[in-house]
Design a protein that fits this description.
Length: 203
């Protein structure tokens, strides 16, 4: 009898482990019709136990040569080239490969940085949770978080520049409008840009 109980317990634990959820690298709450949760710019500090070490090693990419001139202290996103270029106040330029929005999910124009967050939480929209009821209300910081280790929020909260848990998507049209970067790149950019930084999104 005791053997049967032990076997049943082992089967139960195996089933629970098999259902462990790994969340896809989908930046859900940049969908314009689903951005309704309260206070998107409130602080979300990482929990004290969080060690920001991803479960993958991102391939090192050579910096791309900037293909455009821009004013100092400005971020330019060249959508077709999948490139983000930041020109510092001193005139130094940094160019990074990025993932951009899929067809029909892109935005072009002038905006600005309004806030930044280390180890952001990911909050799926109501429409996403309706499509996939297994999604939680909040995904805490960690290697499975689709926003990576840094998020830079742009005006109106509709767009973000952030890391990713899918580095293979960099250089492609993969997101719902946001701009994904390799971890080492977004962490470098995060330290340089401040709220108020001008952002130009070009075709």
């Amino acid at each position: 009898m005791r053997l049967l109980v032990l076997l049943a317990a082992a089967l139960f634990l195996t089933a629970v482990h098999a259902q462990a959820q790994v969340y896809a690298p989908y930046d859900g709450y940049d969908e314009y019709d689903g951005y309704y949760y309260k206070d998107p710019y409130s602080p979300y500090p990482p929990p004290p136990y969080y060690e920001p070490e991803p479960g993958y090693r991102e391939p090192l990419q050579e910096r791309r040569e900037p293909s455009t001139r821009s004013a100092r202290g400005t971020i330019v996103i060249a959508t077709r080239e999948h490139t983000l270029i930041y020109t510092t106040a001193q005139g130094e330029q940094f160019a990074y490969p990025i993932a951009v929005g899929r067809e029909g999910k892109r935005w072009y124009g002038l905006t600005r940085v309004v806030s930044k967050r280390e180890h952001p939480e990911w909050r799926p929209t109501a429409s996403m949770r309706q499509k996939n009821p297994r999604l939680p209300a909040v995904v805490k910081p960690g290697p499975a978080n689709p926003l990576g280790t840094r998020a830079i929020y742009l005006a109106d909260g509709l767009l973000r520049i952030h890391g990713t848990n899918d580095p293979s998507s960099i250089g492609t049209n993969a997101s719902s409008g946001c701009f994904r970067m390799y971890r080492e790149d977004v962490e470098e950019l995060y330290e340089m840009v401040q709220p108020g930084t001008r952002v130009i999104v070009r075709r």
